[in-house]
Amino acid sequence: MVNKINRLDEQHVGIPNQNEIFSIPGVGGIIIKDIDNVAHILMQTRCKPNAPNEDGLLEIPAGKIRAFENIFDALRREIKEETGLEVTEIFGEEIVSVYDGNDYKVINFMPFSCSQNVDGNYPIMVFVFICRVTGDLLPFSDESKNYKWIPISKLKEMLADKPEKIYPMHIDTLKKYITYDNSKHK
């Protein structure tokens, strides 16, 4: 894979400025579950000791996409690594189209939401999908802890009253989900 990446750097990207920094692509999942007929979303506490502004914030499971990794495979991998859960359904995956030609294999997808950090120290862009899972939660992982199924009503209160307690990359996505018509995801 290194040869392929080097070839792409030389042929397509070039290196016009050695100091140029690119956005880091990431993927996240709004994991939904009905508990006693009440809609819940899985949230976790972010473990980032080297990033004190982020450590301890609530977030949805998310992580980076590896070079040439299918975004849906990345979402399944990240959720499994962080929570121990197996993704059984990703809303929107069924409408993916694929182009395979001219030495490219391109998937065209439509996430529920996409957020990009355009200031600060971490140039991340996160594509978020709504999904369902099965299995048992890990007690903890290297990247997260304190997994909680939070009712939508409580999440709505948290977003209104204490948004600073939630990872900034997920705030507007969660607000969008709360106002979104969830009836098709029941």
Please, could you describe this protein's structure?
It is a single chain. By secondary structure, the protein is an alpha+beta fold. The chain has one domain: Alpha-Beta Complex (Nucleoside Triphosphate Pyrophosphohydrolase), CATH 3.90.79.10. The protein is 25% helix and 34% strand. It is built from 4 helices and 10 strands; from the N terminus they run αββββαββββββαα. It has helices at 2-13, 71-83, 152-161, 168-179, and strands spanning 24-35, 38-46, 58-59, 62-64, 86-90, 97-101, 104-108, 113-116, 124-134, 144-151. 25% of the residues are buried. Mean pLDDT is 89; it is low at 1-12.
Question: How large is the share of residues in beta strands?
Answer: 25-35%
Which fold name corresponds to the CATH topology? Answer: Nucleoside Triphosphate Pyrophosphohydrolase
In the CATH hierarchy, what is the architecture at level 2?
Alpha-Beta Complex
> How many individual domains?
1
State mean pLDDT (0 to 100 scale). Answer: 89
Classification by helices and strands: alpha+beta
Please summarize the sheet with the most strands: 8 strands, mixed
Ends: how far apart? 41 Å
Shape: globular
Q: Please give the number of β-strands.
A: 10
DSSP helix count?
4
| Helix content bin | 25-40%
Q: Rg from C-alpha positions?
A: 18 Å
Reading off the top of the CATH hierarchy, the class is best stated as Alpha Beta
Element pattern in H and E = HEEEEHEEEEEEHH
* Sequence stretches where pLDDT stays below 50 over 5 or more residues: 1-12
What's the CATH H-level homologous superfamily?
A: Nucleoside Triphosphate Pyrophosphohydrolase
